[in-house]
Amino acid sequence: MQICPRLEIDINKIKHNTLTLTKLCKEKGIDTAGVTKVFCGIPEIAQVLVDNGVTMLADSRIENLVKLQGINAQKLLLRLPMISQAKETVRYADISLNSEIKTIAALDAAAKELERMHNIILMIDLGDLREGVWQDHIEHTIGEILKFENINLLGIGTNLTCYGGVIPNKTNLSRLVEFGEIIEAKFDISLTIISGGNSSSLYLLEKGEMPDRINHLRLGESIVLGRETAYGDPIQDTYQDAFTLVTEIVELKEKPSVPIGEIGMDAFGNKPVFEDKGLRKRAILAVGRQDMSVQNIIPLDPNMTILGASSDHLIVDVTDCTENYAVGDEVRFNIEYGSLLQLMTSEYIYKHVK
């Protein structure tokens, strides 16, 4: 009997997705950074990305970049660096995304102490309102960056959809290119990278609307789940099921569909609402909200319905299932990005790479 609950990770599907996407990008002159944060920087998976076309590995956590040091690829820190981790950033990341002069000054001091140069990509906010220099501060910021002796301005970039949901399009990414050209002309420098965002920008490649000078994308969900993230559509010739959650039934009983007694708050401070469907066969699975977002998992059995979850238990309705489930049986789920991120992070979920 295999360990439950577990994530089954199909390495061949990840390999296929990586090849498909890096080929698509390469045809348009775009290098890809493979984002490793969703699988917590597992080196075995990261190596597959590098072997199949990504030109650098990107993660939001220094701890994950440490795991990746044995892989021959540039390392990019995705989350804006913390001043308190300036030395670790320089030591473990070849490149970092930045927007604060104070932080860049700390990176410069750390790089000087470690006797190396540190590359940065200056992030520009195009309206999604997450990280980035606001547009009327770009030239001043560039001028300050160029004063640092141990900082190399590798390029500029932007992030869209992750916070404000702003869709990348030809108009806003063309503005990023224009900012790059203004910077190059004013300061007489050449930018190596103009990073046009993440998996939400991929649909522009298929439409032929990616501005020519965008030459770098940071791809995570598109590689691991085969989806572009602007509209959530599957990408042609990719797998959406490289990761599968496998759980075990710990109770299987017929019970009323509405709790008996006065209804108060559940364990998470919500007052639940129930629909009376009479007696139903309900299975309890040994996984819960401590491990995942219940809203982002989908039973492989189309006749199974998720009823809800507590910290440690997932409750499903199996009344209409044709499968004759029993206590001890395994139940499988497809996973969306939000739950995959949590499941990979949870130390209570066994990860089985196959």
TrEMBL record:
Pfam families: Ala_racemase_N (PF01168). The keyword Isomerase applies. The keyword Plastid does not apply. Transmembrane segments: none annotated. It comes from Anaerosolibacter carboniphilus. Keywords: Isomerase, Pyridoxal phosphate. GO terms for cellular component: cytosol. Residues 9-224 form the Alanine racemase N-terminal domain. InterPro entries: Ala_racemase, Ala_racemase_N, PLP-binding_barrel. This is Putative amino acid racemase. Its cofactor is pyridoxal 5'-phosphate. It comes from the Bacteria. One of its GO terms (molecular function) is pyridoxal phosphate binding.
